[in-house]
Fold each of these.
Amino acid sequence: MDLSEKANLLRAKKGQAPVSALTAYDYATARLLDEAGVDLLLVGDSLGMVVLGFPDTTHVTMDHMIHHTAAVARGSKKSLILGDLPINSYPDPKTAVANARRLVEAGAQAVKLEGGLGQADKVRAIVEDGIPVVGHLGMLPQRVKEEGGYKKKGKTDDETQAILAGAFALQEAGVFAIVLESVLPKASRLLTKTLDIPTIGIGCGEGNCDGEIAVITDVIGSYPWFVPPFATQRADVAGEITKAVKGYLDALK
Ligand code: KIV
C-alpha cells in the first residue's frame, strides 16, 4: 500500500469534517476502535504510563513502540496507524529515518515526533523517504522533566508566536497534520486558522482545532490513578473490572 494514501485522505478533511483520533496500544482495543470508525489510531508513547507503568514517557524505547505498533496493526484495517517516535529516537535526520522505517515495518502508516523548528530537518528527511509525518507542538511530554511538569502553552504572545513559527516550519517540511497539546483556546484557534494542514487537539478546549485526539484509557476510564483535568470520561471500565473480579472471587467461596 502507498503509505501516503490514508495520510492524504486525513489531510483533506481540513475544513470539511472533524478528524477523529484515539490512542491504542493493543490488538483488541485497536480492533474495536477501527470497527467503530476512528480515523486515526495513535500508538502513543503514553503507553509508557498507561500500559507499562512508568512515571512518564521518557522511559519508552523503540522496542516498546515496535511491539505495540505491531499489535495495533494486527487489529486495524481502516484507521490510519500512527506510530510515535519515542524520546532519543530522532536525534538527527539519519537516525530519525532509520527509526521511522522500523515503525513502518512494524505496521505504522505514519510517524509522529515532538517539537518545532529544531525538528524540521528530521521531518523533511522522513517525508523524503516516503513516510508521512505528524508534528506535535505545545506541551511536549518527552520534555516534561526539563519543563518541570505538564503546563499549558500559548499563554503569552511570544509563546504563541514561537508555536506558530514551529508549526510553519513543520508544515513547510511536509507534515500532514499537527497534534496540539495543552495549547490555550485562543492560540489553538489562531494556529488552526493559519495552517493549511489539520490541527488535532488534546487539552486545547472543544472546537478550537480541526480534530480531537484523546488517550483511550481516559475516555473509557480504565486507568483511574491519573486522569488529566481536561479529559471527558465516557465509561468506567476500571469499575467494571473490579466488579467482575469480585463476582468471580465470590463465586469461588
Ligand atoms: O502519546 C500520546 O498519547 C500522545 C497524545 C497525548 C497526543 O502523544
Amino acid sequence: MSKTALRVAVLIVSTTAAKDPSTDSSQAALSEVLAKEDGRWEVVETKIVPDVASQIQEQIMLWADRAADHINLILTSGGTGFTVADNTPEAVSALIHKPAPGLVHAMLAASLDVTPFAMMARPVAGVRNKSIVITLPGSPKGARENLQAVLKTLPHACLQAASIDSRALHAGGIEKLEAEAGLRSDSGQARAHGQHHNHGAGHQHSHSHGSSHDGHRHGHGHSHDHGHGNLVRHTPSSANPMSNDPNLGPSRRSRESPYPMLSVDDALKLIKQHTPPPEIITSKVDVSLPGLVLAEDVRAKENVPAFRASIVDGYAVVVPKGGDMKGVFPVVSVSHASPGEAKPLKVGEISRITTGAPLPPGATSVIMVEDTILKTMTDDGKEEREVEILADNVKEGENIREMGSDIKAGATILSKGERISAVGGEIGLLAAVGVAEVKTYRRPILGVLSTGDEIVPHDRPGTLRLGEVRDTNRITLMCAARECGYEAIDLGIAADRPGTLEETLRHALRRVDFIVTTGGVSMGELDLLKPTIERALGGTIHFGRVAMKPGKPTTFATVPVKEHSSGHRTPKVVFSLPGNPASAIVTFHLFVLPSLHRAAGIAPEGLPRARVTLAHDFTLDRTRPEYHRAVVSAGPAGLVAVSTGGQRSSKVSSLRGANCLLCMPSGDKPLRKGTTVDALLMGPIRSDLW
Ligand code: AMP
Ligand code: MG
C-alpha cells in the first residue's frame, strides 16, 4: 500500500437507478472487484444518471476535464445493449480522444469465452485527457467480468495516460513500470493473463452468462452470489408490452428485466386493486359452509328455544299462590323432549318432564327430581303413580327456559363480512334458528400449473434422466391452497413452448378464477409466461418484479375472459411464481393468499402477523428484504423463532417444518439473537420446542 492509489470514478447509467439508487448493485460489484487489488484503486466519485446521452457526457467531462485532482479511470455501467434507450457507447465514443481497441478486444474475448451472446456487447474504451474511460455492461455480473478481464493492465494504462512525458515514464523499462503498478514482475505471466483469458488464474467464469435469474445460477459452488443482485433497468417503461417477443429468439430478448422492481407493499397494493371483487352466491348451510364469508346480515327465522322448556329433569307443576309445593301429587302425564301435544296441567297435578322438553300448557315451574321422593307406583311397578315434593317457596318460572330467551325471531345473529368458522359456533347458530341458506361470497377456484421442459410428474417411476426435475411445486401449492380452504384444480405440467402454454392457459381460464403457475418467469429465452400473458392472452401484467428474497420475478396479471353465458368480460387472475420450490411457496403465501382472500371477501387479507423473538443470530441479505422460513413455537417467554436452515430459493429442505415467514429487513449486519421481528404465520404455532 506504499504507492498512491489510482483514482476511479464510477458512473451508473440507468433511468431506474437514477430514480431509486437502491435498485443499483453494479456500483457495489465494481467497488468489490477494485477493492481486491490491494489498495491500488480508490473509488473517489460515484454518480448515477438516467439513460440520457447528454447527462452521461456532462458527467464524464466533469471528471475527465478537470485541471487538478484528475481521475485515472472512469468506469460507466449500463446502457450498452441494443434497445432504444441504450446509448452509453455512442455518448462515450464522442468524448474519446484516443480509442483503445485493445481493451475492447480483451473484454469481448473474455466474455466470448463465457457465452456467444457477448457478440452483442458494444464496449467502448479509450483516453480522454488524463483519464481512461471504459463502458461496462449494466448487470453486476457482466460489469464485474468485463472489468476483471482488463483490470491487471489498467494501472499501466492509467499511468501512461496521466504522464505528460512518456520518456520519463518509460525510463526504468516496462518491467519497472509493471512492478510499480503492481503487476507481477514476471511480466510474461501478467500479459498472458490479460490476453489469453487464462481460466485457471482466478476469473469467475463459472457463472453462466445468459441468464440473470435465481434459477440458473446455483450449483456453481458460490455459496452467496447466486443471482440475487438487484438488476438495473435500461429500457423505457412506456413500451408496452414489456415482455420479450418469443418468436425473435434468445438474441433479441431483453438483457435485463424491463419490469420495475416493486416493494412488497406496493405489490400487495396492486394485488388489492386488481383482484376482482367478491361475487355473491347463495350457499346452503351445511358442512361446506365453513370458511365462507357472509354477504348479508342474517336474521333468526325462529325463536330459540321455540317453546317454554324445562332445564332440568323433574316435575312440571302449577305453583299455588305463596309457592308452597310441599305434599304428595299424582303424576298425570309425561313430557319427554319429543314433539307432540301435551295435556294441560291443573293445580294439584304434576307431570314428569325431562331436560329440554316443552312444558305442558298451564305449568308454571319445574321441580328438580332431587327435591322429590317416589311415593307410590303402578301395580306393575313400572310407572310412578304419586310423588312427594319437598320444595317450599317455589317461584313461577323456576327451572324454565322461556321461548326466545336465547334468540328472538328476527334478531340479527350474524353480520355481513363475518366468516363462518368450523371451530367456532357460527354454523350451529345458523342451524339453531332455522336458516338453511345464506348469501355468501363465492370461494374462488384455483388452477395450479407447473411449467418447464425439465419438469416430470413427481411420482413418475424410475430414475431421472439428466436434467429432469420432479414436479415439487404443483402438489405443494395445491395442498397449500386446500389447507387455506380453496378448491385447487390440477392443470398439470406445460412445456416451455409458446403454443402449448397459451392453449393450456386459455383452457384453464374458462374453468378457474385464479391460475397459479410456477417456473418460466425469469429472463431465459424459454421463460414464456410474461410474453404469453401479454401478447397471446391480451392480459395486463401489473407487476413483474418484487424487491424481496426469495421470489424476485413474481408476476401478477389479470386476463379478461369472455363469459359464454353473459358475453361479459370478467377479469381472471394469473400469478406466475418463480420455479424454485422455496420461492414458489413463499410467494404463494405472501401474494396469492391475500388475493384469494380479497376475492373471497375475507378481511383483513393475508397471513396473520405476530411479533416473535429470534432464537439465534440471523444473517441478512444485503439488498433485499427476506422472508425467512422459520419455526415459531410458544413457550414461557412468548413466541420464539428458529430458522429452518439454508434459505437458498432452490432449497427444498428449507420448507420442512416451517410454520412462519420472518420479515427480515435487508442489511449488512446480522440480526442478533433476542431481537424481535414480525412473523407471518402460515400454520399452527408449535409448543414442542421448549
Ligand atoms: P424457472 O423459473 O423456470 O427458471 O425455474 C427455476 C428453477 O426452478 C429451475 O431450476 C427449475 O428446474 C426449478 N423448477 C421449476 N419448476 C419446478 C417445479 N414444478 N418443481 C421443482 N422445481 C422446479
Ligand atoms: Mg423454466
Amino acid sequence: MNRKYRKTIIAGNWKMNKTLSETKAFADEIKPQLGKHKWCEVVLCVPFVNIPAAVRMFKDTRVAIGAENVHFENSGAFTGEVTAEMLKEVGVKYVIIGHSERREYYGETDFTVNKKIKAALAAGLHPIVCVGESLEQRELGVTAELINYQVKCALAGLDATQMRKVVIAYEPLWAIGTGKTATAEQANEVCEIIRSIIRREFGARVARAVTIQYGGSMNAKNAAELLAQPDVDGGLIGGAALKVPDFLQIIAAANQE
Ligand code: PGA
C-alpha cells in the first residue's frame, strides 16, 4: 500500500454466489461491524440480479457496489447481456472486467477486455481489470511478457485521465480458488511490473496514482502481509469475501495504522 499516492481498495468478488436473502443476511451481519475503514475503499461485486437490492442495503454505508461483468456495446441484440449504462443507473460504481473465469469459460479476450473498459469508462464506472498468468506460463518464465501483453492490450487507446479511473487486479490463475496464495514478494514483483508498464505508457504521475490489487486466495491470515507490500494497493477477494468475519479481517488489515 502507499496511501500517500493512491487509494487502497478491498473488493469482494462474489462470483455466482448468494441469493437475495443471503445477500441481505450478509448485509445485516456486516453493517454494524464495519467501522470507519477510513484508509480503504470497500467494494462488493455481486451477481447482476442482486445489484439494485445491494445498493439499497449499503446505501447508508461507505461500501460501494460493483458488477462482475459488462457488455461493450450500448444496446442491441445481445441476449443475456447488460450494458455499462444499465449498471450505472442502478448505482454501480465498479465493474470487474476480464476475470480469468470469464476469459476461460466465456471467450473473453484481451480485445473484448479493452472494449469493455472503454464502455465502462464512458458510462462513468471504474473498471477493475484482471490480468494474470497460469502456472504453466509462470514455470516457463514468461510471466512478465504475458502481463505486459495483457496490460498493454487492455489499456490501449486510453488517455491519462481515463487511466486514473482504472484499477488493475493482478490475479495469478494458479492462486484463484486454490488456497495457494502468491508470496508477498511474488505479488509485489508483478504489481511493480504492472506499474512500470503504466509508467511507460501514461507517465510517472499516473502510474503512482493507480490502484493495483492482488487477488488469488487472499484471506484473513495472509492479507496483512500482502497489503504491506509497497505496490499491492488492495485485494480482489473471492472465497474470503463470502464470510463476514474473514472479509472484516481483510478490511482491518488494510486499515492498520
Ligand atoms: P479467491 O478468488 O479469493 O477465491 O481465490 C479471487 C478472484 O477470483 O477474484
